[in-house]
Amino acid sequence: MNQYLANAIAVATLCILLTSVQADKSPFITLSSTTSTENSGLLDYLIPKFRERTGIDVRVVSVGTGRALKLGEMGDTDLILVHHKPSEEEFMSKGFGIQRREVMYNDFIVAGPSEDPVNIRGERSIARVLSLIHEHKMPFVSRGDESGTHKKEMELWALAGVDAQRYSGEWYHETGAGMGTTLNIANGMSAYVLTDRGTWLSFKNRDGLALLFENDPPLHNQYSIVQINPDRHPHIKYTEAELFINWLTSGEGQQTIADFTLNGQQLFFPNALPQ
Amino acid sequence: MNDFSQAFLKAIQLILNLDPNLIEIVALSLRVSLTAVLIASLIGLPLGAALALYKFFGRGLLVAILNTFMGLPPVVVGLVVYLILSRSGPLGALGLLFTPTAMVIAQVCLITPIIAALTRQTILDANNEFHAQLRALGAKSLSMMNTLLWETRYSLVTNVFAGFGRAIAEVGAVLIVGGNINHNTRVMTTSIALETSKGNIELALALGMILITLSLIVTSAVMSARHAAYNVYS
């Protein structure tokens, strides 16, 4: 029996070693990003180019902006790539981040059933579009997950003077899920939905949905990268993370972002300020 | 229905092409879940047997807890393991978060209660049947436990596979502690969730079919090995 037990323990230890050793082969940093940058394929396009330059791999954990910031606060990621300026500024002011750089932008759009029952296609402002949806109690699907897109959506409802959450469960539906899942639900419910253009363009299951409203200044969608403060979390890979920020905001990194297209369409527009 | 036939073709296509991404994901799924099953069995089998055979203070409570934990929600296990392995958590210094090891740990937590609780029942039943015989042969309690574990080994395989089925199929825990990182911690279930969220319904469904087929192959392999062994021994 002791023999068996010893063997068993040896096997178990070996397994744990195998799984952990395998994970630490080459230098890497962890980046938690919004689902939009990962799902659109942008990061899969950028990271190999950075790795070629520096030999450093970037491991992407894609979550909503709210959770990405939380991972940063807890020291579980070296960098975060998110898109909600007020939350980022709060994060910085609390001392969780050591530097924040704006990287690129695109915009939000409103999608909905292609028949467009309340005809938001013809409208000129997002505030008016949301008022129309509210007035006619049209189904609207919200992320409801504290992501950057969700926070933006709340700001837009405030702009329209509508307290949408009051109608939660009536015509306003909170999915508490990522952008892609939410688009799937909007499709299934023939509902209106706010989405970033990157996820929209890369999303495959949009048969019943159409892009209905775009091009209004409040729909601007700015992405920034934040480096976690090593004073709070000494294990943070400061030098490697800084290399990534410097590369991403450099001429080469910015050009790479501009070069990324999907079906011939550019998804993200670089706008980093030179340091 | 069209979705299903297209997904089926896609699944066949992926398998025939030996898609390298698919192989990587399948291999990691198997490695994580089989390691978890192995460790959970090393804990769960003796634990279950001990609970069946030894009387000690608090045993009833422990059994109740174990039976409750058979139905632990994976997402809760994921969250708790995340908080423990987080850099800000008690085991943060190990840097295990977002690694396959973290996924193994989460799955071990998830399936050890299943294996232990089922084993307890198996051993309890066997003990009711053989207790008098074993006692008459002068078996001491530890060797009795070993004998019972050995005699019920064919049933225990089923218990272990109940654990494996749970481990390979769950997504909530591995998503939180693994992070679904491409080429690192992406497994079958997290890929399915990801592809669904990208709107690649066909691909997601194809991966689902492959996952089920894979479970079927692993289970049948073990079942036939068990059957062969059974024939040899009896």
- Number of H- or I-type helical stretches of chain A: 11
| CATH-scheme architecture of chain B | Orthogonal Bundle
Question: What is the CATH H-level superfamily of chain B?
Answer: MetI-like
Determine the structural class of chain A based on helices, strands and strand pairing. Answer: alpha/beta
What would the principal axes of the Cα set say about the shape of chain A? globular
CATH class membership of the largest domain in chain A: Alpha Beta
Distance between the termini of chain B: 48 Å
**Which assembly state applies to the chains in this document?**
heterodimer
By CATH, the superfamily of the largest domain in chain A comes out as Periplasmic binding protein-like II
Q: Radius of gyration of chain B, Cα only, in angstroms? A: 20 Å
What is the strand content of chain B?
under 5%
Your description of this structure?
The complex is a heterodimer of chains A (275) and B (234). By secondary structure, chain A is an alpha/beta fold. Helices cover 43% and strands 23% of the residues of chain A. In chain A, helix 7 links the parallel strand 5 and strand 6. In chain A, helix 6 (126-135) crosses helix 7. The radius of gyration of chain A is 21 Å and the shape is globular. Chain B has a single domain, classed as MetI-like fold (Orthogonal Bundle), CATH 1.10.3720.10. The A-B interface holds A 1, 8-9, 11-12, 15-16, 18-20, 22-23, 30, 35, 39, 44, 59-62, 74-76, 177-181, 183-184, 202-206, 233, 235 and B 31-32, 35, 38-39, 42, 86-89, 92-93, 95-101, 104, 142, 146, 179-182, 184, 194, 196-201.
